[in-house]
Amino acid sequence: MLDLGVGTGRELPALLDAGHSPVGVDASTKMLALCARRSRPVPLMKGDLWGPLPWDEASFDAVLALHGTLSHPPSADARAAFPHEVARVLRPGGVFVAEVPTIAWLERATRESVTRLGETQARFTDASTGATIEASFLTEGQWEALFASTLTVRTSPAEDGEILIVGRRQTS
């Protein structure tokens, strides 16, 4: 199981307890250091989830992107390429799961660390690392359209103004 944007690894104990063998990747050295201290040992790699992933085709049964990781692509082109890279590293029948914040989340965000930059964009400061992150927000339909050519995907509203995205790579 590949955990994209593993961050501090807060989901890793539950994944390990459920019998999964997660591998984490994150672009932040600080986040990886926090993850290595907080979690039971798992393979961790510094890397950019928006570029080519350093694994062979069909390497994983599942790919996760939790805690709003997909809200801060470096460009529209990187966001457009992302579903193809996820599908590439998933085994046939493999599952992709992501949770992403919605525009409604942004509208409710009253924290001092969140600055609205436009209708669908914001900048916020991560409390764990102090990093400033720019985020963009898509609707359920936009997320479905983004993944439509690579995975059978469905979205649904989740708690706290988030969208749950669940996709499966075709078996043939």
Report on the structure:
The chain is α/β, with parallel strands linked by helices and 172 residues long. The chain has five helices and ten strands, in the order E-H-E-H-E-E-H-E-H-E-E-E-H-E-E. The chain has helices at residues 12-17, 29-38, 76-89, 103-108, 140-147, and strands at 2-4, 23-26, 44-46, 60-65, 90-101, 114-118, 121-125, 132-136, 152-158, 162-168. It has a seven-stranded mixed β-sheet, sandwiched between helices. The relative contact order is 0.16. The mean pLDDT is 91.
Total strand segments: 10
Shape: globular
Q: Order of strands side by side in the largest beta sheet?
A: 3-2-1-4-5-10-9
Beta-strand content estimate: 25-35%
Query: Multimeric state of these chains?
Result: single chain
Major sheet attributes: 7 strands, mixed
What is the ordering of alpha helices and beta strands? Answer: EHEHEEHEHEEEHEE
Unreliable segments (pLDDT under 50, ≥5 consecutive)?
Answer: none
Separate helix tally: 5
Computed Rg? 16 Å
Q: How far apart lie the N and C ends?
A: 21 Å
Q: Structural class of the secondary elements?
A: alpha/beta
Outline of the structure:
This protein is an alpha/beta fold and 172 residues long. It has helices at 12-17, 29-38, 76-89, 103-108, 140-147; strands at residues 2-4, 23-26, 44-46, 60-65, 90-101, 114-118, 121-125, 132-136, 152-158, 162-168.
Give keywords.
172 residues; alpha/beta; 5 helices; globular
Q: How are the SSEs ordered, and which strands pair?
A:
Blueprint (H helix, E strand, L loop, with lengths): L1 E3 L7 H6 L5 E4 L2 H10 L5 E3 L13 E6 L10 H14 E12 L1 H6 L5 E5 L2 E5 L6 E5 L3 H8 L4 E7 L3 E7 L4
Parallel strand pairs: 1-2, 1-4, 2-3, 4-5
Antiparallel strand pairs: 5-10, 6-7, 7-8, 9-10
